[in-house]
Amino acid sequence: MVTAPRTLTEAVRLLDQDQLIELLRLRPDLRYPLPRHIAELVGQATTSTSIARALDGLNAWQAAVAEALAVLGDGTDIDEISYLLGNPASAITPAVAALRHRALLWGSDDDLHLVRAVRDHFGNYPAGLAPVSPHPLTDRQIDAALRACGDQVRPVLDRLLWGPPTGTVRNADRPISTDAARTPVELLLAHRLLRPLDRDTVMLSREVALLLRGRESSWLLGREPVPPQPPELTGPGRTRTVIRLAAVGAANEIVHDVELIIAELDLDPRRLLRDGGLSTRDVQQLARDFDGRLPYTGFLLEIAAAAGLVGSQDKITLVPTVDYDRWVGQPGPLRWLRLARAWLGADRYFSAAAETHPLRADAHAARAVDNRKLIIEMAAGAAIGTVLNTDQLRTAAGWHRPGAARHGHRLDEVIDWTWQEAGWLGLVALGGVSELLGVLADGRELPAELARLFPEPLDHVIIQSDLTAVAQGPLEAAVSSSLRLLADQESRGGGAVYRFSQKSIRRGFDAGWAGAEIGDWLQRHSSTGVPQPLRYLIDDVARQYGAIRVGAATSYLRVEDPAQQAAILSHPQAARLQLRSIAPGVLVSPADPDEVVTVLQDIGLKPAAEDARGQLLTTGPRRRAPAHTEAGTQAWSVAAEEAAAAILAAEQRLPAAARMPLEDGIALLAEAVGTRALVRVSYVDPNGTPATRELQPVEVAAGSVRAVDPANSEIVSLPISRISGVSLAADRA
User: How far apart are the C-alpha atoms of 354 and 303, rounded to whole Å?
Assistant: First the structure.
């Protein structure tokens, strides 16, 4: 026969494996460090830090029920909670079960016991109510006292009614008769509607506060009642087909823009600041390629880093990672899914740093993941195409997670950021909820009908005689990479435009391409052939390229044309290179070869670098940062199923005395008080660490055990709730 539990430890020991798994899933912090047995699990679960984290995860209704329990005495029942909250028992019972599943409450519905640490969390005056009076007044006595005091005391009562229930008054504890009372406070004290707390403090009695609150509302817990059900998210609807097309269009656009900004970093890596972010100047330069929106540009950088597509090899420069080369070759739906999942699971608020210094370290926020998932899951509950506004989301989020607003950034600020970023990702389109949002919220793969809407990449462009190339859709990764090498991209989107110039063609030569190779590549990937003006441009750059060669001597220049040599020596900008002629067609400089090349390019020449053997140097291999690793994974990422199995297995290995029912252990302690026997007590100390001591019990009462440690004559007081096992010291192995 299973007896009713008398402590939280006993209640948790009665859980089956599925119930224990549910507890560890609802309170993941209990998985780290992994408890060695049930008593240690309970010790961790009742620490103030863990309790605060668990309460932050409650919705507004569950939190209200928890606060009502903190108001009521130990061993209360559902009906008393129902009276405080003005709602039927059918609304209370699910919330009580939710608290019980989180080990914040134990006992049956007619004998409920709130965990002491939860009660302490709500402070001395939960719901703004004072403790029960030593000699409470009846309702009839309160009404009679109020009539005797008159209306003049009402402002004082209104001031204390909803909390805090205390006020400061000099000589509050002096005896006052009803005849001698003159002020409203004296009248209230004389009629026992207020009672002195100490010399200078008065307190509104709980029974008086509850009676007065009940005459204003059936909700006795606070000024604003909390509904048992969340607010429904509704709004005008848009056509499902329109929303779907707009959402996929936005998703395809952000995939293209992330590729574009990473390609820019590939050509020109940016230096990182000390805090790991990019400078405002660099962000502004990058933003010019993305319609000048700094927040959007910062978001692209943030999401690329979160997805592991950009990083730093040396903590100095930002470059693509090796994962980028794999990602850029994947189909569009898979590329979008990686970005969206990285955004949803990122432990930072992207928009907090996007406008100033993207990627900076202080944008990390422990609750960013929970808050972002909350907003997305709420929105996913609305019908596809429903147009939601942020005011609705704020109201709903305040019910689902009232604790979200207590930490870090303001909740309304977080909602604004999240909703804007969801629009950029295509989760929200034209203000309406899209199918992509539901896919992300459920953790599913993209269904085939959505994946088919992403455009297939092309392998060709239209090259025009005005030295431009038009891409009529997204290009294959290899094609777009080579095209961006040979031309400058002038527009984004499905119909991107690229422009060829001497500078862009020169990049191809620097990368090791020959003139004929450039022409052949363009011929293969142009649906209109290579126009004559572009062929002339390639030939013109090829003739000039390498006419001047730079090496290290510290630097030397070989110039075939005497007129060109003279022009270089006489040019004002070249003066800082301190060039001098050492032989016909040969100049030397104390400057580094890279500086010489840069200066000659600035004055309109096209030099080529060569190595010590006279061989032309091409662009070096692209720099890559290491592959992305999950840095923000919680230490308690061990699965709840594994943790539960380990705890139950360890519990079975405990000695029988350690698993003794607590009432038997208490009886053994009480017996030891009379016999003065030594007992071995296993318990969890205030730090949550298991401990064992041999003690001589002196008294067992009031929820604790007082004993003497014979080893040092120390008097010890242990709460019964923290004792996990008791045995006679003589039984020790």
Answer: 10
How many CA atoms does the CB half-sphere of 157 hold within 13 Å?
24
Question: Beta strand pairing status for 548-551 and 488-489?
Answer: unpaired
At which residue do the structure tokens 């009276």 appear? 83
Q: 299 Cβ partners below 8 Å, 6+ apart?
A: 350, 351, 354, 358, 421, 424
pLDDT at 114: 92
Residue 348 backbone dihedrals phi, psi, to 5 degrees: -155, 155
Q: How many residues make up the chain in this entry? A: 733
Nearest CA among 726, 723, 692 for reference residue 709: 692
The Cα 640–Cα 101 span in angstroms is 14
Write out the two tokens for 404: 């979200």
Nearest CA to 579 out of 553, 541, 608, 547 is that of 553
Helical segments of 162-239, H only:
184-190, 206-214
CA Rg value for the chain = 37
- Rounded Cα distance, 535 and 625, in Å: 37
In a 13 Å sphere around the CA of 626, the CA atoms on its Cβ side amount to: 5
Q: Which amino acid is at 312?
A: S
DSSP element (H, E) containing 246: helix 240-267
Instruction: Please report the DSSP string for 605-635 in residue order.
Output: ---EEB-TTSPBPPPPPPP-BPPP---S--T
Could you tell me if 80 and 120 are in contact, meaning their C-beta atoms sit under 8 angstroms apart?
no
Q: What is the pTM of this model?
A: 0.73
Question: Furthest-apart CA pair in the chain: how many Å?
Answer: 122
- Local structure of 168: helix, strand or coil: strand
Q: For residue 316, how many other CB atoms are within 10 A of its CB?
A: 10
| pLDDT tens-digit series, residues 47-69 | 888 998 899 889 999 999 999 99
CB 333 within 8 A of CB 322: no
The owner of tokens 């040969």 is 586
Structure tokens at 55: 């309460």
Q: How far apart, in Å, are the Cα atoms of 448 and each of 333, 334, 398, 426, 636?
A: 10, 12, 36, 17, 35
pLDDT band (50, 70, 90) for residue 733 = very low
3 state SS for 507-536: HHHHCCCCHHHHHHHHHHCECCCCCHHHHH
**Over pLDDT 90: what percentage of the chain?**
18
At 313, the amino acid letter reads Q
123 torsion bin: left (phi>0), alpha (psi -120 to 50), beta (else): left
User: Can you give the three-state secondary structure of 293-341, one letter per residue?
Assistant: CHHHHHHHHHHHHHCCCEECCCCCEEEEEHHHHHHCCCCHHHHHHHHHH
In the DSSP assignment, the letter for residue 18 is H
Q: Where is pLDDT greater, at 598 or 634?
A: 598
**Omega of the bond prior to 554 within 30 degrees of 0, cis?**
yes
Which H or E element spans position 234? none
> Degrees (nearest 5) of the Cα angle 501, 504, 508?
130
Residue 286: other Cβ atoms inside 10 A: 22
Query: What is the spatial distance between Cα 411 and Cα 370, in angstroms, rounded to a whole number?
Result: 12
- Exposed, middle or buried: residue 16 (CB in 10 Å: 0-12, 13-18, 19+)? exposed
Q: Where are the beta strands (DSSP E) in 422-553?
A: 428-429, 432-433, 462-464, 468-470, 488-489, 497-499, 548-551
Per the structure block, which two tokens stand in for 488? 């400058």
